[in-house]
Design brief:
This protein has 14 helices and 5 strands. It has 335 residues and is α/β, with parallel strands linked by helices. It has a single domain, classed as Rossmann fold. A 5-stranded parallel β-sheet has the order 2-3-1-4-5, with helices on both faces. Helix 2 packs parallel to helix 11. It starts with 9 loop residues before the first helix and ends in a 10-residue tail after the last helix. It binds adenosine-5'-triphosphate. The site of adenosine-5'-triphosphate has 15 residues, from helix 3 and helix 6. InterPro entries: P-loop_NTPase, PPK2-rel_1, PPK2-related. GO terms for molecular function: kinase activity; phosphotransferase activity, phosphate group as acceptor.
């Protein structure tokens, strides 16, 4: 870990407590972090490097028969910062290794199918980090608040979603669920900015004010989502999002930790190294062979150093929050 870091492991801190009171949560809080914005931004850059290496290993694993994948589900009301998080996460890793899907109003074709149909089709394949900008949770949020389906329909979906996610996890995908919670005041400010700033005006949707008017109903719908669908297999993380830098820091950490937990190593080749080297050498000129040997001699110490640094970073990441952190945090409450 660098100079500044988490004073408490954010994972348990961000888990919704069974008696979670959304109205009482301070959405400008920074649970687990008291080193401020600049330190957070530095930390995220450091984490980005680790994340990128972990992602490459995940990708390599997927290319060689591994079944593992990671799915980041990002939920939040308008202006909560979903888009920023998604861009940011993708910006830190090789875009080839990311499967991004934004879920809008279902198309005519999607409406002909079960609500999980489009979600299943968007799941990340082996080796990929899937990112959902909104998700199947819209089917128990907007569908409920806007009365798109009857109560008996949406209320049965929680158990169905839990089974669905259990199935995904059993198939080898780690599911990281993040809800970005912005305060009503901050949402107002961010929406007004869309009107005030010519470069943001394209984002304005008159319907956002109608959604905002249903604030309490949405809060209730979110609270019920946390109560019913934060499972051991796929727990929720409730992230205060009034400070964009904190939301970014927290999501980066959650994703990094999910990858660290996979304990990824480079895949073992299914062929013998010496045999393959001999075969290739037999096709090369003496000059080219000498060049290859020289390059290996130059490069290998550097590679070994990078590997050692990676191992160190992974070990440090596994100890996030230090002695007073590890697992002892109280769930959301964000005290
Ligand atoms: P965002 O606000 O996420 O940046 P946007 O305003 O650009 O997105 P879209 O991405 O086109 O709009 O669609 C998002 C809208 O789709 C949201 O209003 C969301 O509630 C709605 N939506 C998503 N899933 C569903 C669903 N299953 N049923 C009904 N509406 C849905």
């Amino acid at each position: 870990m660098g100079a500044a870091g988490w004073h408490q492991d954010p994972r348990p801190l961000l888990r919704p407590a069974p008696d979670l009171d959304l109205a009482a949560l301070d959405r400008g809080a920074t649970p687990g972090w008291d080193a401020g914005k600049d330190a957070a931004e530095e930390y995220v850059v450091e984490r980005g490097r680790l994340l990128s290496e972990l992602q490459e290993r995940l990708f390599a694993d997927g290319r060689t028969g591994g079944r593992r994948a990671v799915l980041l589900v990002v939920q939040g009301l308008d202006t909560a910062g979903k888009g920023g998080i998604v861009r940011h996460v993708i910006g830190m890793v090789d875009p080839q290794g990311v499967a991004l899907r934004a879920f809008g109003v279902p198309t005519a074709e999607e409406r002909r199918h079960h609500y999980l149909w489009r979600v299943r089709r968007a799941l990340p394949g082996p080796g990929l980090i899937g990112v959902f900008d909104r998700s199947h949770y819209e089917d128990v949020l907007v569908a409920r608040v806007e009365g798109l389906v009857k109560e008996w329909v949406w209320s049965r979906r929680y158990a169905e979603i839990n089974r669905f996610e259990r199935e995904i996890v059993d198939g080898g995908t780690t599911v990281v669920k993040v809800a970005l919670l912005v305060s009503r005041d901050e949402q107002g400010v961010r929406l007004m900015e869309r009107l005030d700033r010519p470069d943001k005006r394209w984002k304005w949707n008159p319907g956002d004010v109608d959604t905002r008017a249903k604030w309490d109903a949405y809060q209730q719908a979110y609270a019920d989502v946390f109560t019913h669908t934060s499972t051991d297999a796929a727990p929720w993380h409730v992230v205060p999002a009034d400070k964009k830098w904190y939301a970014r820091l927290a999501v980066t950490e959650l994703l990094t930790q999910a990858l660290v937990d996979l304990d990824l190593d480079w895949p073992r080749p299914s062929w013998r190294l010496e045999t393959q080297k001999h075969r290739l050498a037999a096709t090369m000129s003496a000059g080219a062979l000498a060049t290859a040997e020289r390059k290996a001699a130059e490069k290998l110490p550097e590679v070994a150093r990078a590997e050692a640094e990676f191992d160190e970073a992974v070990a440090a990441a596994a100890d996030v929050g230090g002695d007073d952190g590890g697992g002892s945090g109280r769930p959301a409450g964000w005290a």
